[in-house]
């Protein structure tokens, strides 16, 4: 948002005229730092506008910091120009080692000229913006509390009702007492880690896994161990061996569509995995954030287990909006209670009420299922198309996923992914090199591509340049 | 939100007719659990509506969990009724010790029949809802990214620009690199504690202090020490003695209007306090959340210190909206960098972009200053009125604050605040007993009242009943 657009929206043309007149006096130094502005009455008379118009103009200039109000004595030109806001570009392009934060920060702070085939979300144009706009406008007409109040400690009852129905569709029967809304999917995992982990505790992840799991676990000072991923879930023999040898307290995974590999957990692996977890009393966080992208639901650990030692988490950031945000936790009711306390202590609540109610409205509207179907079709076309393009430059998908937007790929012989990512950044292309996903640092020749962000020809050109 | 209001808004009357027809068949058992619903084509023909109308009706019923879609084979009645959502009342009225969470949970989960003189926020009707509605509608018209994307790692540039101007008005010059938006004010403190504290570290608070500081510090396993509060800030001689004896790593306080006492830090105390902090290399978090309620700005530690060892945090939840939420941190630029990483690791970003841009729009609009003036006037009238009423039942304010909505009060001789809070809850009145604010448990005869929530005659009646 720019201040100009705010002005032009909420102020009339007369307010804008007064603001322009003051700006002109400032620019020409007719009014200098520290000087008093004309009184509201005098300026209103001089410009032939109402005093209210001048008040509005002064308030806006004060909100920008150009002038300042002194109680009882009028408005003054600010003593000094404000320190300038640095440009987004210069904020985001600090030299820095290629670690999980490198990918997050380069992707999140990318400007419009930067291409982000390494990012973990869909382009804004793929999201259901009309449905979101309708829901927002509808909410804005509602009574005050939804706009102003904190909301209950478990979060929107409407959104929890939607979640109950969605989970039931996956074979997971969760009572209301088993659901808690959180500010985001990541925050859901963070709260659970705060409840379960002490510094030095061992946590198991897949190799490779979503890179932010590693960043989060390092923030908790956990000891991280990993098991190689196969196309049907973690290598189950090795999984059993690691549980026996390392006794991890917790395992974090995506079951449906695994990030970054796109693998799908098989029912047999799920069954053995849960038995091993039971034998060694290990808790599991199942991150279902990509679940809606599946062509048909695959087994959920939470469904087999009945939400006993498995905690299911998710959010709507990948399919609906990452700007109007909420995550959620489905878990044993006796775990939800301390999680509510932790969320109060560390955030005084979860998602904003307005965001949660907006999401509920979109999800209960009739258009969401159609949107998801369209996304699936669009991605099903994009995956083989992008895979073919990558193969033409010698980059090979590790497997062809059943759904979603990630392709986990092997680079040509002799290519180091971090060098290529570093070189591509000079061409304004943000890549996701394999080892940021790998606790064991076993993925130096791998890279994750987001097929929804791979259409621009400059990407393949930058890749070829970087690989030679 | 109810599903009914969502239906009536976004669907046409034909969709509602189809939904009603299906509900009737379910209620009369013409369609039982597990049975297949009529095909879309057949029902559309039978009811004289378009197939799209039936699809929309089925999608809504599926979103509610009443029916389920099976890919390729149509829609079926859900196998079993969903587990019912428990009523908000039964969720919130668990027996529980009176601790900081007791006040938070009872206040946040209060239903419409419950009175909350112990809560820490204003009634929804006191908030600038029209300005918020205008800003939301304006944002809903904007281009897609603001509705869908994560946004940059530091948060909305527009909101940070507003913050720069506000801080400059308090004598705090913060560069863009010194500002970070967070999901809430509490989360701002939490991130800073994650950066600075290790389990067992000593942290200093005021006695009394905002009760959630204590909950947060316990979540960090900090060792809490406290210094008695006076009407001009912490007892400075004791403050210096505690710093020398206990070597706290961190001090957390509100400077402008202190919570719960309403005290104002004097310039002299601020100066000595900062010198003591420098002598013992202690960091300070200054929570400015009540700053806008001051009739005129009092000294800010961050202004004296120049944001070197003082970190200023705040939010807009008390004056603008706790539903459309954002907090912020102003700190040394070399501290902002690790805080950005921590916020990515633990939440994948701060406030939703939509919320932050909405707040920026309200704050740059001309009406915010007027809103704040009106709040100040309204509260300046309410404070003595409520104080007089409390005094009539023997409850005496500890001091009469310059601004804000809290009155920190002493109960009549022999009254225990926790017993009174427990008894008042039976009359649907949520109070804030003194010891939840006191690390030293020195406030057993004190209670905090929110003057904006004290107009209902039932409150004084419940207090009198509970005190006898």
Automatic annotation (TrEMBL), chains A, B:
<dbReference type="Pfam" id="PF00155">
    <property type="entry name" value="Aminotran_1_2"/>
</dbReference>
<keyword id="KW-0805">Transcription regulation</keyword>
<dbReference type="InterPro" id="IPR004839">
    <property type="entry name" value="Aminotransferase_I/II_large"/>
</dbReference>
<keyword id="KW-0032">Aminotransferase</keyword>
<dbReference type="Pfam" id="PF00392">
    <property type="entry name" value="GntR"/>
</dbReference>
<feature type="domain" description="HTH gntR-type">
    <location>
        <begin position="12"/>
        <end position="80"/>
    </location>
</feature>
<keyword id="KW-0238">DNA-binding</keyword>
<dbReference type="InterPro" id="IPR051446">
    <property type="entry name" value="HTH_trans_reg/aminotransferase"/>
</dbReference>
<dbReference type="InterPro" id="IPR015421">
    <property type="entry name" value="PyrdxlP-dep_Trfase_major"/>
</dbReference>
<comment type="similarity">
    <text>In the C-terminal section; belongs to the class-I pyridoxal-phosphate-dependent aminotransferase family.</text>
</comment>
<keyword id="KW-0808">Transferase</keyword>
<dbReference type="InterPro" id="IPR036390">
    <property type="entry name" value="WH_DNA-bd_sf"/>
</dbReference>
<dbReference type="InterPro" id="IPR000524">
    <property type="entry name" value="Tscrpt_reg_HTH_GntR"/>
</dbReference>
<keyword id="KW-0663">Pyridoxal phosphate</keyword>
<keyword id="KW-0804">Transcription</keyword>
<dbReference type="InterPro" id="IPR015424">
    <property type="entry name" value="PyrdxlP-dep_Trfase"/>
</dbReference>
<dbReference type="GO" id="GO:0008483">
    <property type="term" value="F:transaminase activity"/>
</dbReference>
<dbReference type="InterPro" id="IPR036388">
    <property type="entry name" value="WH-like_DNA-bd_sf"/>
</dbReference>
<protein>
    <submittedName>
        <fullName>PLP-dependent aminotransferase family protein</fullName>
    </submittedName>
</protein>
